[in-house]
User: Fold this.
Amino acid sequence: MICRRLVVYTFACVIACVRAGAADLGQTRALLDEAQRIRANDKTRSRQLLDSVEREKPADPEIVARVQLLECKWANAPAAAYAAVTAGLAAAERAGSFGLRAKLHACRAAALAVDGKAIAAEQEYGNALTLARQVRDVSLEAETLGSIGYLQYTRGAMANALTNLQTAYRLSAQIGDEKGRREVLSNIANVYADAHVAQYDRAIEYYKQLLDEYEKHGQPSDVADTMFNIASTYQTKGDFTAAELHYRRALAAFQKLDRAADIAFTKRDLALALMKQGRTAEALPLLDASVAFYEGHDEENAAHARQFRGMAYRRVGRLHEALRELDTARRFYEGEKNVRFLEKNAEETTLVYAQLGDWRNAYDAAKRHAALAQTLATNRNDELSSRLRVAFDTEKKDQENRALARENALRSAALREAQRSRKLQIAVSALIALLAAALAILFWRQVVNTRRMRSMAMTDELTRLPNRRHILAAAEIAFDAAKREARPAAVIVLDIDHFKRINDTWSHAAGDAVLQSVARTCRVALRPADLIGRIGGEEFLVVLNSASEHQAREIAERLRLAVERLDFTSIAPNLRVTISLGVCVTSDYNTNAAIATADTMLYRAKERGRNRVEMEMAVA
Assistant:
């Protein structure tokens, strides 16, 4: 009887302990839920709740994993985040929780991104995405796709970024996550606002939609940021009046929020918008304030502000001060190997020395500018071949690139073979008759001179592009190749709008500078296998290598946009240059007829308002 009572008592104790343990676990989970919920808004209380859970030294693997997940999110350095994730993943494995594993992988990806390891971060987000889809966690799937899209945007993979961001936007809207949806829409707008995508109007449309939503929900900080993004997009687009208006609104919002760093940044960009409008005197106080804020603690932004102030000083005639500012900025950019800003710095320095009449230093600065401009042009050309435009057929582009690589490899092999053959001929000739050495030297000099004369005869002296004879011969060759391969041939004829007005208003020297800049810009904007030459005063002919009707129109539009974005304020504050283009894609393979058709399309573009592309598909 006593034994039976002991057994019953023991069993009751076990049941009571189990219930007490379950209650404790429930309470611990509730504390963690609360810590997670208030983490963004009440960091002190959230940290206190997490510390209280950790003091209990929980043994349950799910609780341990959740604690480590919060520790990862609280980590103030990537190394601490990595350690928390490692411990958390081990506990999540024991608990058999795929959902916690997904969140831990996502947290480690965020730490990798902060640590500057973008490729590893994208791979880790991919692990999180796979697990999130396994447990059907749509919220985490949307968040992860948004993060992947943002990383792809930052490294220039625009087409992939847009695909992932649009999916994240759809999922966020589907589950009613308005905060997440707005964050993704902001990143989609950032993609469209990027200069390599250049869909500025669409970007501004999305930013304005966000602006309305942020104002409706009383989010003044997001309103200020979005207003700045709108201003920046207008500035990149070239609408400096609209940019100024939105910069001033953003500046007022940042001042109300007392965000000092954003105030300095906005003043600097507002100053640039004012300078683009020829209002340099208004820009200088803004630049002074920006330099004063950054000096001593932010070298990069201080250098940018000083460079802009140097440009402003030149425009108002304070030339020695301009040199001092530009030299300070140059030393920083050289240390950072920032070619883009060094190129602009050299250009401005050349102009300052020229205004001072110091032609020796102006010449040295101009040489430095030319070398940097060439490096920058090469870099931009590489970017154009590696970055994809949104809505572009990526597979077809890859195929074209592979075909071009094979063609280049064959040409290189042929060139090496030709070089070996030439060396052998020289060696044999030397062995046959040493007495003819003098004659051989004279003959070689004649060959060199002939090549030089041929180059001079085939190259336009001003633009350094192929001249009319050269480009027409290249067109014949391209059309013959297209005929052999049974594919369409394509040409573009373009000229500079109102070029006579440029010469008459700002001098022929200004006109020559415009011609050189347009020629250089168009050459950089073309694909490597395409060719452009000058066939008249302000008229150019482009011969496209293997281009469909869609590709020919896209290339023509890219040339138009590239010229439209050129900055000629160094010549005249209000000088704006555009081009009109006529395109012909044909299977007739008659070069003269195709050029005549493209020329007709060019005149149609002129008649319809200029700064546009007109096209005709002439099929035999």
